[in-house]
Amino acid sequence: MPTGDGLLARVHPPLGILALEQARAVAQGARLFGNGHLDLTARANLQIRGVTESTRAPLARLLTEAGLGDRRADGGPQRLTLTQPLAGHDPAERIDVPALARAIEAAARDIPGLPAKTLVLIEGRPDAALPDADCVIVARERTRVEIAIAVTEDWQTVLACGLEDAPAILTALLDAFARTGRRRMRDLSDDERARLVTTLRASGSAGSPRPPTGRSVVPFAPAAGLRTRPDLQILALDAPFGRCTADTLDRVVSAAEAVGADAIRLSPARGFVLLAPTGAPAAAVMAELACDFIVAPDDPRRSVDACTGAPGCASGSTPTLADAARVAEMFRPLAQQGRAAHVSGCAKGCARPGPADLTLVGTQGRYGIVIGGAPGDEPAIHLPIEAVLDRLGRAKTVGLAAAFAPNMARPDNGGDGRPA
After folding, report:
1. What are 74-129's pLDDT values in tens digits?
2. Residue 215 DSSP SS3
3. 409 vs 3, 403, 418, CA distance in Å?
4. Terminus of the chain with fewer CB atoms < 10 Å: N or C?
5. Prediction pTM value
6. DSSP codes, 124-162
7. What are phi and psi of 172, to 5 degrees?
8. Burial letters for 94-119: b for 16+ Cβ neighbours within 10 Å, e otherwise?
9. How many CB atoms lie under 10 A from the CB of residue 184?
10. Where are the alpha helices (DSSP H) in 223-349?
């Protein structure tokens, strides 16, 4: 797809896992056929930036030879399932998550008309937090799972079924969804959703399933940093605002080799996860990577989402990545309270379509301020970045809503605090 810095090529590693040679191929492709910059997405995919019409074909050949080529030619999802980075290595899982994901990918690959952004979340722990998706499969027992579909702000659990029946039942669900013509399941009308549920329940046993959300205590992706288990060391590296370079990806590969990790797992936290045996020099490797990645769970950048912005994106009018770094530092006291912010180059909100405690929406070089809402919501006020930072400094004492109230006095630094 075209962007402000050329074409963007999205890479969908199967199950979100890159063999080390595949990771080196991605880095080489970004360096030779792009501008050297990579995005890590919330769906655990990679994006190579700065591709041109003359380099897209050789890049595609390189990725295909590495086993990372497109699997569908009809515009459907190249990767349908999302699993947590520790899938298959988490003792709390009640099912073999990777095996179920592979079965679902194979069963659903030939569904015609399935929208490209369709996403199925597979979780083997009954108490895990669940990212946004079209539908979710959650294990409650070792032989049974629950299937839920997305509603506007929640999940609707539609049936419980045997683990072995889940791929076929989910394929029937996705086939019925594709025939509605909708792009996302949460866009279905009440009547369409009711027909979908009726069709699905005819394929399985209704039972009395519990909602898969509401009592979540375990994060879906491991927090940045080093975690040690008796049998394993987990190195979680978040890329600041989901951006890294070909050179830093090569350093991650070298780090994986140094600690004896056989693969690089992509994280929905927009980073990488390495699994190392006990006794490997994980702490030393993490220290070496700290200059390029977020390696501490309390880093305020983990609480701020940001898109590419200007000049990399043609839709952006503000340098969101640079501004987000400044916002994150001022946001630190609020991040410690569990608050989240989003710096978006435009109202599309690619980095975080949903609401945040503070959303900044780039418009003609300034930011529209949305408190507790999404990028598409109406801003209460428009401010230049310096005025945003000034008001963030006040927010730790008066709160976000009061700090960004349209009638607040004009900041001392000359920023325009008046409503647009």
Report:
1. 889 999 999 999 999 999 999 999 999 999 999 999 899 999 999 999 999 988 88
2. coil
3. 38, 10, 9
4. N
5. 0.90
6. S-TTB---S-SEEEEESSSSEEEEEEE-SSSEEEEEEEE
7. -60, -40
8. bbbbbebbebbbebbeebeebbeebb
9. 15
10. 246-259, 282-289, 320-335
